[in-house]
Amino acid sequence: MPVAIFSTYNKQGLIPFMEGLSKESFDMYATADVSTTYAESTGKHLPSLWDLVEHEFNVMPDNDLDVANKIASLLQLKKNVDIICVNLRPKTPNGEPDFQGLSILEGAIIGNLVVTNPGSYDAVLNNIRYNVPNVLDLMNHLEAQKVTHLADHYAGKIATQH
What is the pTM of this model? Predict the structure, then answer.
């Protein structure tokens, strides 16, 4: 089964996207806040990113950053993760970045299907549902969005949600 992971600050459009992936038989793993949002909306429980790390590495991670670093290792090995859905939270008031999200995004090398912009969820689902032949165009578009998202995060341009 294909696997999708979720670590998203911006939840806009996330539940329909996740439900679409579920209908396409994806196994999904998520951070605690995404899992809570999903459960509140659908009544369904998702395994955590901790569960994925424990399964793949046969070890219990030390903390959330350890989870993110181990997932980054999986991504670099192109092992068992098909879709990476990450968008970063804003920096904290003292300027601390989203270390967990950054670790996962920076581990996602070119060739991984990385979704950082909720506006791309429909295009990704359509590509999966209809096996669209121009997957390279979609991957290039998503890669450009990833680079922009990382730059915006480092520049402090990601707005706080209310």
Answer: 0.86
